[in-house]
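Exercise 3.2. Students should predict the tertiary structure of the chain below and write it as structure tokens, then compare their answer with the key that follows.

Predict this chain's 3D structure.
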Amino acid sequence: MPLSPPTPLPPGAPGRPHRAFVTAPMRGPGLDKLGQMADVVYEPWIEQQPLKLYDGPGLAERLAAERADILVVEADFVSGPVFDLPLVAVAATRGDPNNVDVAAATAAGVPVLRTPGRNADAVAELAIGLLLAVVRRILPADQDVRQLQVFRDGTIPYQRFRGWELAGRRAAIIGYGAVGRALGWRLRALGMEVATYDPYVEGAGKDLPAAIDGADVVSLHAAPTPETIGFFGREQFSLMPPGSVFLNTARAKLHDMDALVDALQSGHLAGAGLDHFEGEALPAGHPLLAMPNVVLTPHIGGATTGTEARGAQMVADDIERLLAGQRPLFIVNPQVLGATSPQPATTQGAPNGG
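Answer key:
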């Protein structure tokens, strides 16, 4: 049965402030700023017990009950009857708002906002952490200390955990959007030579084999698209020098898992660091679980307070622009604003990708 939402006064009319329903994790000055522009109903999905994600009908029902005209989500599915409501904007705190039916939003004239690059620093820092953990064997060393096995089997730690330094080594960053760039300057600061590959980013290398050639570390940061799913396979692993390290803090579907396991088991690769798996977890008995030279984290690259604060600021700033009749910096469907909508003063330095 179709929803019959209450008929609100026009947004901004006397006695009718804007009202925002927020299920995305947000914090800091950006959330405070949003609260100055709208009454905020804040229910971050990750803090619900049990975890709660809305579908389109569920969101529409809740929005109507709250009389909200601004929706900010991270993982909820925004579709269908949501766009029958008189919304000012939908914002997704993601680089790619693939949980929002953008076509339906556009047909309904609803601006869709996104937050590209909000987690770039967080993911880049985790990649550095995984790399150091692999090459310096931090996890097994920690385990030996905890198990009172510093002199395991009559050896000394200096023998067992001798690694190599990053300074003077070569890294290849595959995918040079916001995260790739954030990782690049960090690796250079550690004394590494950095090669890049990204056919869609100006200034990045356009030859994948050339980027991989001689790279002690290869780190994937591409977006999952039909062109990139499974693009890093046996041929690419074979191009990596013996004893090199593979990192993927983007999406597991970018690389061939069987090829990675084979490269590790054969000793061709010295180790790997991974932050994402198909289905969000490895199955019991998976070969990677028994490899001490592989460091595994459960999709926590963007899990920082800084990511939440940055996303909140980007959303609040763009909603402020929208309410002021200006064009938001990170709008997915600018056509809903009309041909005469003003352009932003500048987008120089704005993050992209990631």
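Discussion points: The CA atoms of residues 45 and 269 lie 39 Å apart. Residues 18-118+304-337 form a domain with the Rossmann fold fold (CATH 3.40.50.720).
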